Amino acid sequence: MKSKSSIHPAKEIAKNSPSPVLRQLLVLFFAVAYSAFLFPGNALTAELNPPENNYPEISKDMPTEECMQCHPSIATLLRTKGAMHAHVECRQCHLQVHAYITGKTNYADILPKCDRCHAHPHGEELTQCSSCHQEAHAPLEIPANRALSQGCYVCHPELDKDIKIFPTKHTYLYCTSCHHTRHGRKPVCQECHQPHAGRIGASGLITDSTNPLDQCISCHPPHKALKVTYPDDTENTVCAFCHHKADEMLRRKYTKHTALLCIACHPGQHKTIKRCKECHGTPHPEDMLKKFSSCGACHGVAHSVVR
Ligand code: HEC
Ligand code: HEC
Ligand code: HEC
Ligand code: HEC
Ligand code: HEC
Ligand code: HEC
Ligand code: HEC
Ligand code: HEC
Ligand code: HEC
Ligand code: HEC
Ligand code: HEC
Ligand code: HEC
């Protein structure tokens, strides 16, 4: 996704046809317009279609500020949400202005076309610009609609892959089940979940953060929710929250293992168990070890190791 190179000089006028979605919109518009012609009393259509020849006079070189005086809502939209379009003059986009006349002009012909200034910045799969960029005066306000939904994988291939190769029940949700309303929105887990029956928060385990999202995702990456990983400095109390028996056992009888963090023997990925030999090498002659099924045969369990 690169933008700069895809921008033509604004003045370059291309022969172009409107996108299919735009075309559909326009067919609809035209149908409404036609019905207005048949039923002039309809309030909705009267609003959409100013009476013929009733546009205010405007000069050919009217500056943007003057357009804005009569179109204050568009001016506000551009100023607050226009992004880079806030720096484009009205007339750079609107080549024909006040030209739409019911039954005489085709709205499609006077409408600004994206591809006069932009090529296809997202490649050839996502070319129906207005299906996602629904409001040209606020081009980055993108609703989480069907069209966007069908494009997630094009722009976020890694996450699309993650959620599939680490199957959890999240795999069967739509991206927009969580990322609803508008593009870029991040959900909090509690929209759908009770937090571990209320215990995580109340336990005081996760102390510094008041953001519940941080708490959950510090353990559960949302796109691979059961791939719980722990940093090397995770305190034993975090584990003890769910594994109080293991914790008790480790502390009941003091051994040199008692002084270790859980994470020393269970590093990184949750449920990892380090082999004794990874830390102790070969502490006894091989011949001797061969006769026993495991270290545990003499040393018992790691949480209460026998000397
Ligand atoms: C499937 C939905 C979708 C379609 C279709 C789509 N876009 Fe986008 N576009 C997006 C999203 C999402 C972003 C990222 C917005 C952000 O950065 O917050 C974006 C960003 C952009 C950007 C700014 C960043 C960049 O990549 O250059 C431009 C320019 C742009 N789109 C133009 C277009 C044009 C022109 C078309 C039609 C040829 C189009 N888009 C079609 C969803 C879409
Ligand atoms: C980046 C191109 C672009 C710029 C800049 C732009 N427009 Fe538009 N405008 C459009 C497009 C495309 C449409 C039709 C589709 C839509 O509404 O998104 C439109 C529609 C309109 C409409 C009719 C529909 C509506 O939304 O009310 C008015 C009025 C309008 N523009 C006025 C303005 C004024 C005034 C300015 C400058 C202050 C301006 N536009 C700047 C692209 C632009
Ligand atoms: C004196 C007030 C006034 C000025 C100045 C003005 N407009 Fe309009 N414009 C209107 C009215 C009234 C309508 C019809 C109702 C509506 O759509 O808002 C209209 C409609 C439009 C439309 C939709 C219909 C069509 O045929 O395109 C666009 C786009 C538009 N204006 C753009 C502009 C631009 C760009 C400028 C500056 C070059 C401008 N206007 C200056 C009052 C004005
Ligand atoms: C008159 C030229 C012109 C037209 C027509 C035009 N744009 Fe743009 N657009 C620009 C310019 C200039 C920029 C800023 C370029 C840049 O980011 O380098 C821009 C930026 C954008 C951005 C990114 C905004 C940001 O702040 O990053 C999006 C999205 C976008 N345009 C979508 C569209 C869509 C969708 C249409 C059709 C409805 C359209 N544009 C029509 C000139 C235009
Ligand atoms: C056309 C490309 C495009 C499409 C389609 C697209 N995105 Fe994005 N998305 C982007 C870009 C570019 C960013 C980075 C924007 C930024 O950093 O502000 C982004 C950012 C995000 C973010 C993070 C926002 C943040 O604040 O960190 C989320 C969440 C997101 N997208 C979800 C989705 C989902 C879900 C879909 C499909 C429903 C989707 N996107 C479709 C291009 C796209
Ligand atoms: C839009 C709703 C929604 C949101 C938001 C959401 N989840 Fe889920 N999650 C679900 C559903 C539905 C299930 C399946 C529940 C079931 O079948 O019992 C699920 C299941 C899970 C599972 C168990 C997975 C499995 O395969 O057994 C975990 C762990 C999980 N969610 C964690 C989270 C975390 C952490 C967050 C925040 C990052 C989160 N969820 C946000 C809807 C959601
Ligand atoms: C169960 C809810 C859920 C589902 C389903 C989901 N996401 Fe997310 N997503 C999140 C949460 C929560 C975050 C915020 C993570 C954070 O802040 O670190 C996020 C973050 C993102 C981001 C921002 C970048 C990042 O890595 O944090 C993108 C992009 C994104 N998701 C895209 C997608 C796409 C594409 C899909 C579908 C393939 C999808 N998500 C499905 C919950 C979900
Ligand atoms: C300290 C780490 C940690 C935190 C923080 C955490 N979880 Fe968990 N969660 C786990 C572990 C570990 C499991 C068990 C995973 C397994 O069985 O493989 C789990 C299981 C789950 C499950 C599936 C099993 C069940 O109980 O239904 C859901 C849903 C879940 N967590 C949601 C959440 C939510 C929501 C939050 C935030 C409020 C959260 N978790 C915070 C570690 C954590
Ligand atoms: C939110 C609860 C939760 C937290 C926090 C948690 N676990 Fe677990 N853990 C579980 C669940 C649930 C299982 C699965 C139990 C089962 O399958 O019988 C499990 C299983 C395990 C296993 C056994 C793997 C096996 O193959 O038998 C180990 C080892 C483990 N956890 C270590 C840890 C360590 C170390 C921590 C702290 C860094 C930790 N856990 C934090 C819930 C948790
Ligand atoms: C010296 C290394 C070591 C330390 C420290 C350690 N463990 Fe273990 N843990 C093991 C080994 C090895 C096993 C496999 C069973 C065995 O051989 O004893 C295991 C098994 C487990 C299991 C699954 C079986 C069971 O007993 O429930 C859990 C849960 C567990 N450990 C949690 C913890 C927690 C929580 C801590 C910290 C309070 C911890 N471990 C500290 C080495 C260790
Ligand atoms: C993460 C590394 C690690 C793992 C894995 C580990 N240990 Fe240890 N173990 C230690 C350390 C460190 C000591 C203390 C050594 C010292 O002070 O010289 C120790 C001490 C011991 C001791 C002496 C206990 C005492 O109190 O004097 C025995 C016996 C022992 N380990 C056996 C085992 C067995 C059996 C396993 C596998 C079930 C195992 N260890 C796994 C790190 C580990
Ligand atoms: C046949 C029983 C037996 C088996 C099997 C066995 N050990 Fe030992 N281990 C002992 C005895 C006895 C000692 C000496 C205790 C002492 O010096 O007080 C010992 C000492 C140790 C010590 C040194 C404790 C210290 O104080 O420094 C470590 C570490 C250790 N063993 C680890 C292991 C590991 C790892 C395995 C598996 C690869 C293993 N042992 C298998 C019997 C066994």
Describe it:
The chain folds into three domains: 4-119, no CATH class; 157-227, no CATH class; 236-304, no CATH class. 39% of the residues lie in helices and 1% in strands. The chain is built from 19 helices and two strands. It has helices at residues 20-38, 43-48, 64-70, 72-81, 90-93, 107-110, 129-132, 146-149, 152-155, 157-165, 175-178, 199-203, 212-219, 236-240, 244-252, 262-265, 276-280, 286-290, 296-299, and strands at residues 229-230, 268-269. It has a two-stranded antiparallel sheet with strand order 1-2. The longest helix has 19 residues, at 20-38. The radius of gyration is 32 Å and the shape is rod-shaped.
- Assign a percent range to the helix content: 25-40%
Q: Count the domains.
A: 3
SS elements, strand count:
2
pLDDT averaged residue by residue: 81
Radius of gyration: 32 Å
Which stretches are poorly predicted, pLDDT < 50 over at least 5 residues? 1-47, 197-212
Shape: rod-shaped
Looking across the biggest beta sheet, what order are the strands in? Answer: 1-2
Characteristics of this structure?
307 residues; 3 domains; two-stranded antiparallel ribbon; 2 strands; rod-shaped
